[in-house]
Amino acid sequence: MADPRWLDDRQQRAWRGHLAMQARLHAQLNRRLQADSGLSLSDFDVLVALSEAHDGPMRVQELADHVQWEKSRLSHQLSRMERRGLLERQDCPDDARGAFVVLSTAGRSAIERAAPAHVEAVQSLVFDGLDDAQVRTWADITDAVLARVDGAPG
């Protein structure tokens, strides 16, 4: 087995900075969203996906793929959100084992109320501190990394 390719100091700083930024940004956005709307970031992610679904209801697996979650995690999240009236599950007429998820009226109202404050939080915490060149570079970096992840086996 080949020796590991350890990260150099510059790579280590970038990687650890990315992990710290991601964790702290996620925590801050979650706290603000909870305070502003009573929604968690997980609630928000699901509501955004459903509100942007152009074909109406989404299959559970399609939603899981969209939010990049394991199906079991999504199932628990959907149950919590369904109990709160934010969405509904409907049987799939073509597949007895399949189900559709649809945004309820309360869910649509919740996302419409939550989105303005959430996007303002993203603007103030992230983009207000970056210039145009930094935003372009960041977008280029995320595109490049995602292309490698999406093309990686397994």
UniProtKB/TrEMBL annotation:
<feature type="domain" description="HTH marR-type">
    <location>
        <begin position="1"/>
        <end position="147"/>
    </location>
</feature>
<protein>
    <submittedName>
        <fullName>MarR family transcriptional regulator</fullName>
    </submittedName>
</protein>
<dbReference type="InterPro" id="IPR036390">
    <property type="entry name" value="WH_DNA-bd_sf"/>
</dbReference>
<dbReference type="InterPro" id="IPR039422">
    <property type="entry name" value="MarR/SlyA-like"/>
</dbReference>
<dbReference type="InterPro" id="IPR036388">
    <property type="entry name" value="WH-like_DNA-bd_sf"/>
</dbReference>
<dbReference type="Pfam" id="PF12802">
    <property type="entry name" value="MarR_2"/>
</dbReference>
<dbReference type="InterPro" id="IPR000835">
    <property type="entry name" value="HTH_MarR-typ"/>
</dbReference>
